[in-house]
């Protein structure tokens, strides 16, 4: 897996060396902890104490929240290379569940060991803080989309975001238009904040218009330019300018 400066979104230039070193140091601390776990495995139960911070080496995971009447909302989707549950460093209880969406290879580190390293190593501290900031950026964008975006715009943004992040992590080639997509239609609706019926309607519309086709655990983007056009109102300024959110050779604003 590629771990380079490009994946540290909007970092200050003077911090790039520290972020790259921090990433390598965390990898060393987590060395030997990798486990292969099945889709659906719950890493963190909601409203429970938890002692670990994780890195996803392969596969997909999510943070989500559900209520007794069956409603469920995806909060964040984690992709290969993501560090998550960093809040274990600071809080005793996690309010939301973290579970795997596909078979995944996951590394972990006890918060006490990370706390010790965090306190004495600025590179590790910077890497952890950057991850929290990046999650905040994604959440701000998604809150805006949920409040102001149409269902089509949200789905387009989801696909552009996932593909861009997979390119940045080195999980897929930069010119790839087919990506792994382990979410069911129900889970897509839980991410987009719409009903399963509405989700089916939007996915069908994308297929019929030759924008994107969902099949057998993957999605193929058939018309990237149109997908970007639909997603554009919900994209932040970074996403509109970053090469990873476009195609190779495409002129960016």
Give the helices and strands, then pairings.
Elements: H1 16-30, E1 35-37, E2 42-44, E3 48-49, E4 52-58, E5 61-66, E6 72-78, E7 83-84, E8 93-94, E9 97-100, E10 104-110, H2 111-120, H3 122-148, H4 151-169, E11 178-180, H5 185-192, H6 196-208, E12 212-215, E13 218-221, H7 224-231, H8 237-241
Antiparallel strand pairs: 1-10, 2-9, 3-8, 4-7, 4-10, 5-6, 5-9, 11-13, 12-13
Descriptive account of the structure:
The chain is of the alpha+beta class. The protein contains eight helices and 13 strands. It has helices spanning 16-30, 111-120, 122-148, 151-169, 185-192, 196-208, 224-231, 237-241; strands at 35-37, 42-44, 48-49, 52-58, 61-66, 72-78, 83-84, 93-94, 97-100, 104-110, 178-180, 212-215, 218-221. A four-stranded antiparallel β-sheet has the order 1-10-4-7. It has a four-stranded antiparallel β-sheet with strand order 2-9-5-6. Strands 11-13-12 form a three-stranded antiparallel β-sheet. A hairpin with a 5-residue loop joins strand 5 and strand 6 (72-78). 35% of the residues are buried. The model has no long low-confidence stretch (mean pLDDT 91).
């Amino acid at each position: 897996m590629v771990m380079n400066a490009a994946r540290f979104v909007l970092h200050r230039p003077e911090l790039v060396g520290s972020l790259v070193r921090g990433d390598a140091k965390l990898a060393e601390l987590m060395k030997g902890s990798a486990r292969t776990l099945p889709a659906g495995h719950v890493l963190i139960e909601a409203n429970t104490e938890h002692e670990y911070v994780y890195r996803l080496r392969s596969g997909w995971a999510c943070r989500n929240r559900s209520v007794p009447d069956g409603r469920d909302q995806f909060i964040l989707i984690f992709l290969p290379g993501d560090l998550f549950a960093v809040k274990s460093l600071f809080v005793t209880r996690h309010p939301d569940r973290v579970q795997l969406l596909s078979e995944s290879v996951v590394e972990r580190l006890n918060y006490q060991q990370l706390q010790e390293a965090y306190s004495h190593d600025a590179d590790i501290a910077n890497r952890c803080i950057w991850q929290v900031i990046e999650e905040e950026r994604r959440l701000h964008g998604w809150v805006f989309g949920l409040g102001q975006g149409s269902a089509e715009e949200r789905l387009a943004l989801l696909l552009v975001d996932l593909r861009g992040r997979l390119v940045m992590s080195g999980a897929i080639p930069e010119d790839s238009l087919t990506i792994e997509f382990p979410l069911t239609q129900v889970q897509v609706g839980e991410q987009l904040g719409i009903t399963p019926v509405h989700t089916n309607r939007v996915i069908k519309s994308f297929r019929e218009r030759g924008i994107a086709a969902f099949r057998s655990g993957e999605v193929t983007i058939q018309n990237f330019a149109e997908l970007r056009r639909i997603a554009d109102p919900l994209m932040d300024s970074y996403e509109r300018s970053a090469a990873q959110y476009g195609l190779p050779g495409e002129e960016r604003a």
